[in-house]
Amino acid sequence: MSLEVEGADEAQTEAVTKNLVFMAAERLFALHGFQNVSVRDITAEAGVNLASVNYHFGSKDALLFEIFRRRTTELNRERARLLHEANDRHGGKPPVREILAALFIPPLRWMAPENDRRISLQFLIRARSEGTEEIRTILRTDVTHLRRFSDALTAARPDLPDVEVYWRLHFVLGMLHNNRFSEFDRMNALAEGRMGEGDTAALLERMLDFAEAGFIR
Amino acid sequence: MSLEVEGADEAQTEAVTKNLVFMAAERLFALHGFQNVSVRDITAEAGVNLASVNYHFGSKDALLFEIFRRRTTELNRERARLLHEANDRHGGKPPVREILAALFIPPLRWMAPENDRRISLQFLIRARSEGTEEIRTILRTDVTHLRRFSDALTAARPDLPDVEVYWRLHFVLGMLHNNRFSEFDRMNALAEGRMGEGDTAALLERMLDFAEAGFIR
DNA sequence: GTCAGTTTCATACGGCCGTAAGACTGCCCT
DNA sequence: AGGGCAGTCTTACGGCCGTATGAAACTGAC
């Protein structure tokens, strides 16, 4: 349940231009939203030619989708690995807190201030609500990733009806997805700046305390 | 802590066209997002002339803002009234569950399937993340409404550090704002349709149980 | 050195966008 | 009767958008 960063390399030296576009687009989409960023904005930010987007990705929609796909895969893989490790530690039946930690830790790692994946997380959160119809369809349809977690949770709380588990997982995901800049800033304004965003380790414990309490009850 | 609907009239007979535009715009914005809906879409849906938006509201941005302002005011007023009633019932110091109920009940009332305010809630949730810079600034700046609730919560839990209250309120609002169609559909797909969206009274109790547990802990 | 293949470049096209301008309509007030 | 006016209509303008095209530049193999 630690937040230490682990080796996240990825060679990806192929096609410098394609990568410049990818990174610039992810950044701008995350900051301003899909519809508010034009292909011209992206190529200008990346310092490449206007036609690059359509040459390397096919279309603006396809670019968005590829970023979404890659980041989602990465996030899901990290989560699955942590859940797997929790399974190993507890003989295939980890307690609720460990399951929730596997769900929380990857995005919280990404969110750490010095982490350059911070923008990727903002992108994912945004794409979830503002994405293309294609993205929304996938989100609605492909729930295999979540199933691992709901299964683990029902195993950890066999006394709880399935439906109850789903609802509480729904609430927990709401907590998690609300961690975007603007919402945090709002609450921090209310707290007159005393919320201290930086400490992600403390945030993890806070979130686990809150979510676990709601789950164990 | 009941969900019975109360008198929500509002005369609003002024300028039929203006109202048609208002309603059509709210609906389309809620369903498809601000950037994905054109002035032409709105006026077509409303069955009025293209120029109506600019004549009655000044601009598309101003239209969005006016819808946001009105719905926010209505929601905040309902919440404030419920909190006030809770105060009266408990001599100015209601327990956590009552405070959270004052926060949850208005949006849940709006969300009830037969309620025509359902679309207004979807609009508000969307505007919160996709709105204009002006809307985001207001959300970030104007926290007077939230202060009533954070004050009440710190009074109900004087042993808890202020900062802790803000964090937990942040989590609770995350739970609440995640109640959009798409997110629910996702979880309901995972539950194979067994989540039974319709019963908002049960949902209220479920949310209160979860949030209260996290707060009391 | 040539040629095929890949990548970059400048440019343009058609389309939809938000907004403005000005003519027109109906209604009330005097 | 007639003038004023709020509201509605048609139409068009300039602008930015995503994408397509074809030429130019580059790369490596032989």
Q: Your description of this structure?
A:
- The structure is a homodimer of 217-residue chains.
- Chain A has 11 helices and no strands.
- With 217 residues, the first copy, chain A, is mainly alpha-helical.
- Chain A has 2 domains: 10-58, Homeodomain-like (Arc Repressor Mutant, subunit A, Orthogonal Bundle); 66-216, Tetracycline Repressor, domain 2, CATH 1.10.357.10.
- Chain A is globular.
- The model of chain A is unreliable at 5-13 (pLDDT under 50).
Write the layout of secondary structure elements.
The structure is a homodimer of 217-residue chains.
Chain A lengths: L15 H17 L6 H8 L5 H6 L2 H30 L6 H16 L6 H13 L2 H9 L2 H13 L5 H16 L3 H10 L9 H17 L1
The structure holds a DNA duplex (30 and 30 nucleotides).
Please report the total strand number of chain A as a whole number. 0
- The fourth-level CATH homologous superfamily of the largest domain in chain A is Tetracycline Repressor, domain 2
- How far apart the termini of chain A lie comes to 22 Å
Domains of chain A, number:
2
Gist of the model:
By secondary structure, chain A is mainly alpha-helical. Chain A has eleven helices and no strands.
Task: List descriptors.
homodimer, 217 residues, mainly alpha, Arc Repressor Mutant, subunit A, Tetracycline Repressor, domain 2, 2 domains, 11 helices, DNA-binding
